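Q: How would the structure tokens look for this protein?
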Amino acid sequence: MKIKKICSLILCVGLIGTLGGCSKSDPKPQIDGKVTIYLTRHGETEYNVKGLAQGWSDSPLTEEGILQAQALHDGLEDIEFANVYSSPSGRAMDTAKLLIGDRNLEIKEDERLKEMNYGSLEANPVQRLWAKGEDYVWENGWVDYGGENFYILADRGMEALYDIVSDPQNLNQNVLVSTHGMTILSILYEIDYEAADSLYEGLANCSVTIVEYENGEWTLIALNDTSYLGE
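A: Here is the predicted structure in token form.
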């Protein structure tokens, strides 16, 4: 549970650090098959454009963000999903609704899929997140401001994924998850440290990162993939 270094700002949202081993528990449920999870970051928002920290606060999708989600809908059209999960934040839910379109699927909200909580620093310029210095931030996060740290984020994100793979409805199926950049990143540091550490420019809006769970192990299938957007 040691954070070793700082990489760079995650794209207009938060910060990237080496989070490998941050989660407090690793239950590794045993399932008779595999589950494939499509982790998607929400579309571009007004705060993204303005360079403001969102966290648990929210801002609507921009026109570009809506177009991104519509393009991703088309890119995922031929993929069948057993279930769709989303952070309850408006930007993630709006993205999820655009992604499923007219599919007969209910969006299952999960608080554990929310973005990092920056407390009283939310809606402030991203640069203010560094107020107490880099070393302090990476070790302590924003708990002093009423928010979270990286350990909390990684723990709840992985807990959500383990519940998803443990659901019999998802066995040998594809699952769609609409969430946030820092949340996906913290999950990646638990699953594939080197791949996560390569994301110096962050995760693109409406990118797709695919992970599979089988025989108690995670495998990264696709990382920060924007090809579904026609790019």
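The first strand starts at residue 6 and ends at 9.

Confidence is low (pLDDT under 50) at residues 1-21.

Upvote if useful.
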